[in-house]
Amino acid sequence: MSSSQDNSASYLQQMTSVLGAVANYMRLPVIISSGIAALLSSLLYFKQKALIYPSHVPNQSRTTVPRPSEFGITDFEELMIPTPDGEKLSAFYIRPPNKRAQKNVTVLMFHGNAGNIGHRVPIARMFVQRMGCSVLMLEYRGYGLSTGSPDETGLMIDAQTGFDYLRKRAETRDNDIVIFGQSLGGAVSIQLVAKNQNDKRMVGLVLENTFLSMRKLIPSIIPPARYLTLLCHQVWASDTFLPSITEVPILFLSGLQDEIVPPSHMRRLYEICQSPTKIWKPLPGGDHNSSVIEEGYFESIADFVANLDTKTG
């Protein structure tokens, strides 16, 4: 194994360790909610944004964002991208180190509901080093160094802003674009692709450990709240949007030990998918945050991207 591969494995292990705090945070509602229905109703309705978008977890995630240079990446830009409604989104644009092997493919990444883009740089590093893709890591409003506060409407404005940025940027406007979404980022990605699938530059969608809808996820995260799901106004109805995607190939990466999103959610999304090209990749030992270190994870993505109808570099 090369030194670069050793570093990649180490960086990914560090990432999953840091993001392990997310799983502990998501278990808190189960611990505190038992037998307290009235409190639970109030919590679910008035505090659901804090529960769904814990941008402060892990600690200092709103102020400390690891930079690509901390992971051995030298060719990158730190951006602040304005949104149509006046927010500013922090982002990293990362280029492959091997220009001769570079593909005319850009990956637009959307992360899960906690942490920040810096915590996912080890994943982007794999995309640029092993697959020759450039990467735009876009930060949601209210996360990391971005302004604003998160909600479903706002995050979808952010996603469209990131996609439009790639369509307009001179370096990427002729590139094919692959959308990559983890957990909440999968829900963001599904809506974005559903809205833009007729754009021929959007050539693929990769989903990891995402859910059918927030209302259908609540009973798993907060079992006593299973009768209160209509109080959830952050809906994220992926099971409604996904069947409308009929033009874009989709790869489903499912950690079968996921302790946050039941693997049955991913399987059901795969079953209702109407894309002519859909690929199911189970990761037997992967939990919600460790699926990226499972054997075959990046190989599956690389094969998926290689088989897309993309331009070559």
From TrEMBL:
Q: Where is the Serine aminopeptidase S33 domain?
A: 105-221
Q: Which residues cross the membrane?
A: 25-46
Q: Read off the Gene3D superfamilies from this record.
A: alpha/beta hydrolase
> Which GO molecular function, any one, fits this protein according to its record?
palmitoyl-(protein) hydrolase activity
Domain of life assignment: Eukaryota
Pfam families reported for this sequence: Hydrolase_4
A GO-annotated cellular component? membrane
Protein name, UniProt field:
BEM46 family protein-like protein
Keywords recorded for this protein, A-Z: Membrane, Transmembrane, Transmembrane helix
Please report the organism this UniProt entry assigns to the protein. Answer: Mollisia scopiformis
